[in-house]
UniProtKB/TrEMBL annotation:
Residues 331-590 form the EAL domain. Residues 168-322 form the GGDEF domain. SUPFAM superfamilies: EAL domain-like, Nucleotide cyclase. Coiled coil: none annotated. Signal peptide: none annotated. NCBIfam families: GGDEF. This is EAL domain-containing protein.
């Protein structure tokens, strides 16, 4: 199509006139030579008395650097600046937010500049939205595992709680590693982090729907999150029956329980899981749903159920019931009181004699004692250890408690040597908890107590429970380190835990203490008698001594004596006694025998 020159000129003017972008041509000092209507309308809000005569004057309040940029640009032509953002300071008509312009400045030739101006308000708005979305996601993501975090879980729970009921239910599952603190101590923080990342992967993998086959459980909504330390949460939505949730719970636990390889070591780390139903689970034939329905109380209740699962031995799940809340509150009370007890020295140690059975039918009463901790509670009187040892383990007070008992026992033991000579007990047994064994530097602190008290290492017997001793490679290493100090080790409560007679030879122990639950039926149950006999025989073949715990009657004593048990302990001889009474008991009985 051919145009007359006049037409062409007119067309070009129309083109510039209607262009939806602001165009301005200026001299090098900013004097405006040409301006299209879009440029004047965009720049108008910046104009003061001088009008639109000079671009640099006009833009001085928002871009004072322009003259210098032009001066510094020595090339004959080219782009001087691109996409410079100019906050105009007036409200944008369409969006209501403050208007932002975008400016490009080009040198056309040695004398002229071309400025293009566009409205960038929407673009800036979009960028800001994206940024805040990114920030929000970061605030809702756990940086280690890239899982959603506690905040994200709370939001999801709030959403589920607010939606109308539809006959489906949801459940909150809280998972916690059974001995993370101990593993973290021995693996170091980097190793601990690695373990957490593996656990996160396993959880994600276990929730992923299987490649084939139909699975009814919770397809419509699953969220796996890490809400702190070694605590994970899974929210299952779209449940049609309570069994669906429990099936997923078992699958998650199974996924976590397989060994992990970290730094070349194989680590076993099972978890405990607590499950709390959302309020709409009533439709699923779940009766114990909640009184309170907010995100935090759901998380708290799932956590309470998780602690119950842990207390029941770990590697299992527990479903929240209202009665658990009360027990949790009681434990929290004990914890607070126990902190005070340690600070105010309300704890003390009693000693129960462990006597050796002599071939002539008599007993050696100075064979040894076992140190047993007690708590003189200002309101509740003397509290037995069964009520507070586990709480102390859970809340990290066991280290201080154990150190106190060990130091006290060694000091008393040395004191007795000085006062009674040959009549003093020859062995001091002190109970160990699993949490102590995992503490870094703990073996050194045992060595330090031995040194400062002057206690001969061979006179100290540390007692570990079967379940602890059987646990893993790491524990075995610690036990061997203890043995290397010269102390004796005993396997406590034998018969109640995991290990069996056939694995006894794997444990570095000197003594096996047969649990009271066997001994108390020794004279009435053939089955128990046989078990005791077998234990004594195996222990003796391995060069270990045996102690029968909890002898209360003469006939129980007769049975274990017949079975060739080496030592016995029980109310039949003496209850645990305060140090002074023990001395009286030793002297009195020594004098009498
Ligand atoms: P354990 O080490 O097996 O201690 C023996 C328990 O049996 C003691 O209970 C003792 O009083 C009780 N007992 C002894 N003879 C008889 C008897 O003839 N009949 C009956 N019914 N019971 C008898 P206690 O003192 O209540 O301690 C319970 C458990 O608490 C201990 O079992 C031990 O596992 C733990 N424990 C006690 N003191 C400490 C401690 O200082 N540190 C740690 N970690 N655990 C401790
Ligand atoms: Mg014991
Ligand atoms: Mg015992």
């Amino acid at each position: 199509m051919q145009h007359e020159p006049v037409d062409a000129y007119e067309t070009l003017v129309q083109f510039l006139y209607r262009a939806p972008i602001g165009l301005a041509q200026t001299t090098l000092d900013g004097t405006v030579e040409m301006l299209n209507p879009m440029a004047s309308s965009l720049l108008m809000p910046l104009a003061t008395d001088a009008g639109l005569d000079n671009l640099f004057d006009l833009l001085a309040p928002v871009a004072p650097q322009l003259p210098a940029m032009v001066e510094a640009f020595i090339e004959p032509s080219g782009m001087i600046c691109e996409g410079l953002r100019l906050p105009v300071g007036v409200q944008h008509a369409a969006s209501g937010s403050l208007q932002v312009l975008s400016l490009n400045l080009t040198k056309l030739d040695p004398e002229r500049l071309m400025a293009t101006v566009a409205d960038a308000t929407f673009e800036v708005q979009r960028e800001q939205e994206m940024l805040s979305r990114r920030l929000r996601n970061a605030a809702r993501t756990d940086s280690l595992t890239r899982m959603p975090n506690r905040e994200a879980v709370r939001e999801e729970l709030q959403r589920l709680l607010a939606r109308p009921q539809d006959g489906h239910g949801f459940a909150v599952l809280t998972l916690n590693c059974d001995r993370f603190r101990q593993l973290n101590d021995s693996l170091g923080q980097a190793g601990g982090d690695q373990l957490l990342m593996h656990m996160a992967d396993r959880l994600r993998g276990a929730l992923r729907p299987p490649a084939s086959g139909f699975e009814p459980a919770a397809r419509s909504g699953q969220l796996a999150a890490r809400i702190g330390g070694d605590e994970f949460v899974v929210v299952l939505d779209g449940l049609r029956a309570r069994a669906d949730a429990e099936r997923v719970a078992l699958r998650l636990l199974d996924a976590l329980a397989h060994p992990y390889v970290i730094g070349g070591h194989e680590i076993v780390c099972s978890a405990s899981l607590g499950l709390a139903w959302g309020p709409d689970a009533a439709a699923l034939d779940v009766h114990d749903t909640h009184g309170e329905h907010d995100a935090d109380s759901l998380l708290r209740d799932a956590g309470i159920a998780m602690v119950e699962a842990k207390r029941a031995g770990g590697n299992r799940h527990a479903v929240f019931e209202a009665s658990m809340r009360e027990r949790a509150a009681r434990r929290a009370d004990i914890e607070a009181d126990l902190r005070q007890a340690l600070a105010e020295e309300q704890l003390f140690v009693v000693y129960q004699p462990v006597v050796r059975l002599l071939p002539n039918g008599g007993v050696d009463r100075a064979a040894g004692v076992e140190a047993l901790v007690r708590w003189r509670h200002p309101q509740r009187g003397v509290v037995p250890p069964i009520e507070f040892i586990q709480v102390a383990e859970e809340c990290g007070l066991i280290g201080a408690l154990g150190d106190f008992v060990l130091a006290r026992a060694c000091r008393d033991f040395m004191d007795w040597q000085a006062r009674l000579g040959d009549a003093a007990p020859r062995l001091m047994a002190v109970n160990l908890s699993r949490a102590q064994l995992g503490q870094p530097g703990w073996i050194d602190s045992v060595a330090a107590v031995l040194r400062t008290s002057g206690m001969p290492p061979a006179s100290l017997q540390l007692e570990v429970t079967e379940s602890l001793a059987a646990q893993d490679q790491d524990t075995q290493v610690r036990l061997h380190e203890l043995k290397a100090l010269g102390v004796k080790l005993a396997l406590d409560d034998f018969g109640t835990g995991y290990s069996s007679l056939s694995s006894l030879h794997l444990l570095p122990v000197d003594t096996v203490k047969i649990d009271r639950s066997f001994v108390c039926q020794a004279d009435t149950s053939f089955h128990h008698r046989v078990l005791i006999e077998a234990t004594v025989k195996v222990a003796q073949s391995l060069g270990m001594t045996t102690v029968a715990e909890g002898i209360e009657t003469r006939s129980q004593l007769d049975v274990v004596r017949d079975q060739r048990c080496d030592k016995v302990q029980g109310y039949y001889f003496s209850r645990p006694l305060p140090a002074q009474e023990l001395l009286d008991w030793l002297l009195q009985e020594t004098a009498a025998s």
